[in-house]
Amino acid sequence: MPENLSDALVGTTVDHRYVIRSRIARGGMSTVYLATDLRLDRDVALKVLHPHLAHDQNFLDRLGREAKAAARLSHPHVVGMLDQGHDGGTAYLVMEYIEGHTLRDVITEKGGLSTRLALALASPVIEGLAAAHAAGLIHRDVKPENVLIAKDGRIKIGDFGLSRAVSTSTSTGALLGTVAYISPELVLGKPADARSDIYSAGIMLYEMLTGQQPFQGDVPIQVAYQHVNGTVPPPSALVPGLAPDVDELVQWCTANDPENRPVDGRALFEELSHIRTRLTDAELDAQPAATQSAAAQSAAAPGAPQASPLFPATDRVAPPAPSRPPGAESAQHTEVIQATSNPTTVFPASALGAPATSFLPRQYPTAQLDGTGEIDGAAGRAGSGAATQVPTPELGRDGGWPGPYAAPPRQDHPYALQEHGGVAAPDRPLSKRAQQKAAREADKARSRAAATPVRNLREGNSRRRGVLWVIVLILVTALATGAGWFFGMGPGSPGIIPQLVNKTEDAAKLELTEAGFQYSTTRTFDDNVPAGHVVGTEPPSGTEIRRFERISLIVSRGPELFSLEELTGASLDEAKSTLNSTGMALGPVTEAFHESAPPGTVLAQDPAAGTDVRRGTPVALTVSKGPEPFPVPVVVGMEKKAAEEAIKAAGLKAEVVDEVNDASVPKGHVVAQTPANGTLTRDAKVGLTISKGPKMVKVPNFVGKQANVAQKELQDLGFSVRINEILGGLFGTVRAQEPADKELPEGSVITLTVV
Question: Please, what is the average pLDDT of the chain?
């Protein structure tokens, strides 16, 4: 939710396009704002980088390349990268705005989640990582804060591109990201790959299941130290009842050696999907709340071990049993309990909470300790005193040595072995991966046991000891000489990564090989570097590294091509929006008349739809102006046929709408037209009124009648009257009329002779 805090940028407009409405959050590298895109009228998340990053030109160049790479990633579970720019002293990224909350909010509110809910929330995150890894992108900062959950239930992972750009362009180096989720190889300064994201996702899944992080400390370096030197415990150590498959999944993701993790997000997603279908409803709905409460009460109980920088609260082990004699612990935290007959068994500390004689993992080798306190390497050989079995030291955390106290495994632990008639038997069958892991640990333990001296070096004469010292000195000298060669001239010697940008792939590989560097090749799309040429390296050129450290050689695939969408038939505004959302540019817009397409409709595009082009290619559009207008010719007074031909020549159609008598217009000529002028569209109709000539009227005979009466009646009938007076027309009587009693055209002249 946006924060109602005072901020100088709130209310301002960035790059004449993005109006900042409110501040959402602030982090170590940037501040996130809710903004409105004026061009497209939509809400976006505007990430404004802190000034120390915004003024680093090398970083800005790197950020631009990484933002382009992230923008090419389109997936429903990845927050979309929409834009990137630099407005004065403000460097910014524009991302899809997701209204809702983060996975951190869910964990903070609910604590540990049920297996069903945890896997359901993790699944889309891993699917998004899988898509990114397939596109050659590495996140480097997977954590609950970067998992966004929309109000409608959509789950997306964000901040692709930013973490990679910062990690290679600032002093933070490889130690970018939240230390609680950082992978061991990043702590050690080694190059990151997809498996680094898998490690962080595994830590996040552990926290979702248990409600807390596996490693904690007073300062970040303590947590980083545990990532490198510790092993993430199974979540069931805090939440009893979790399915063994879930424990295996978390520990597979969080293996210290990247080679023992899933190769990428796709491999992890397939395994997670398989587990979700294999678990029973009871296993999926196991609730961790009661377990967390019990764990908290146990931690608060008197005598419970407290967190320390090397053994934080999440790594607590059981307190020593009351029967343990003081001072019995050895340097490897191995406990020896004296016995007169049967040797007392000491169990690994990785499984906690059961009585000290309940379980015995058969795969862990033991050595015999005789009564003098010396180790007898012959398994089963009686010592000079009461024999006591102790586990072989340095079995690692999975071998049972996470803390200062040794304790037996819990009865509810999936790998616990129960006693049946004096013989240890598994409580439930181990998975194939767990069996392979146990076999590897057993082989390592046997090798270490075989290397343990079985005799005291003080025995024998002085000459033998002298020979041994000579041999030791020779070995030390050889080791020193080898180390000097290794770090001076060999694979451990330092070297400067050469400048390889724009060189061909073969030339770059040859140069790295001749310089003694180890490298791997990744490929990416680049609009500026030709295909088969080098875009850059990771770490970048000019960086000094040891020659055995692997360099990632980034080779261009050439510009990424995109298929143009169909724009014809859409409105001009819709076409502009489509071009902007697909990363294309609007080219020249021309207008053309079209008889059926409404004005503003796209008639054609160039290049055509379906053409593969680079992002940003301008697309020319032809837009309809509507039907073409035609002027209406004036045909009044013209003969009918001539008038029709004139109208047809103008692209219009003539239509006779009426015929009237007209004394002034000859028969068959146009008396009037509709419309009389203006313009019409093609094939529109022009109405014509045609003359039938003058009207025929019968002339009455007015001889013997008064002249004034005759004149008026003739004029009313439409005739013209001429008066011819004789003797001055004294009597006003019509003596003669010419013509009379005939039909004449209206308007004819009638002559009256008046006396």
Answer: 76
Contact 659, 638 (CB under 8 A): no
122-165: pLDDT as tens digits: 999 999 999 999 988 888 889 999 999 999 899 999 887 555 54
Q: May I ask the CATH architecture of the domain 13-96? A: 2-Layer Sandwich (3.30)
Q: Tell me: the pLDDT tens digits for 449-493?
A: 554 444 444 445 566 777 888 888 888 888 877 777 766 656 667
User: Over the stretch 221-236, which tens digit does the pLDDT of each residue have?
Assistant: 899 999 999 999 999 9
Catalytic residues, which ones? 141
Percent pLDDT > 90 in the chain is: 35
Cα angle, residue 695 at apex, residues 693 and 696 outer, rounded to 5°: 120
Residue reference for tokens 């050895």:
330
CA pair distance 752, 408, nearest whole angstrom: 149
Give yes or no for residue 66 having a pLDDT over 80.
Answer: no
CB atoms within 10 A of CB 256: 19
Contact predicate 230/260, CB 8 Å: no
Dihedral angle sign, alpha carbons of residues 168, 174, 175, 181: positive
Q: Give the tokens for residue 182.
A: 């950082």
Whole-angstrom Cα distance, residue 129 to residue 10? 33
SS3 helix, strand, coil % of the chain, rounded to 5?
30, 25, 45
Q: Which residues pair with 36 in a beta bridge?
A: 19, 43
User: How far from the centroid of its chain's Cα atoms is residue 490's Cα?
Assistant: 42
Rounded-to-integer distance, Cα 536 and Cα 553, Å: 7
What topology does CATH give the domain 696-754? Trypsin Inhibitor V; Chain A (3.30.10)
Answer yes or no: is pLDDT of 354 > 70: no
Question: Residue 557 in contact with residue 525, Cβ under 8 Å?
Answer: yes
What tokens were used for 395?
A: 């079995």
C-alpha to C-alpha distance for 657 and 647, rounded to whole angstroms: 15
At residue 735, the 3 state secondary structure works out as strand
Which CATH number describes the domain made up of 100-288? 1.10.510.10
Q: Looking at residue 68, what is its pLDDT?
A: 82
Read off the pTM: 0.42
- 561-627 has which fold? Trypsin Inhibitor V; Chain A (3.30.10)
Alpha-carbon separation of residue 707 from 704, 727, 744 (angstroms): 9, 14, 20
* Torsion angle of the four alpha carbons 174, 176, 180, 181, in this order, in degrees rounded to the nearest 10: -80
Q: H/E element holding 673?
A: strand 670-674
Instruction: Enumerate the CATH 3.30.10.20 domain ranges in the chain, comma separated.
Output: 494-556, 561-627, 630-691, 696-754
Between CA 246 and CA 274 the distance in angstroms is 11
Span(s) in the chain for CATH 3.30.200.20: 13-96
551-609: pLDDT as tens digits: 999 999 888 888 899 999 999 999 999 998 888 899 999 999 888 889 999 999 999 99
Q: What is the pLDDT of residues 305-351, one digit of tens each?
A: 333 332 233 333 233 333 333 333 333 332 322 333 333 333 333 33
The CATH architecture assigned to 494-556 reads 2-Layer Sandwich (3.30)
Between CA 364 and CA 391 the distance in angstroms is 7
Strands 749-754 and 734-738: antiparallel
User: Mapping DSSP to helix (H, G, I), strand (E, B) and coil, where does residue 204 land?
Assistant: helix
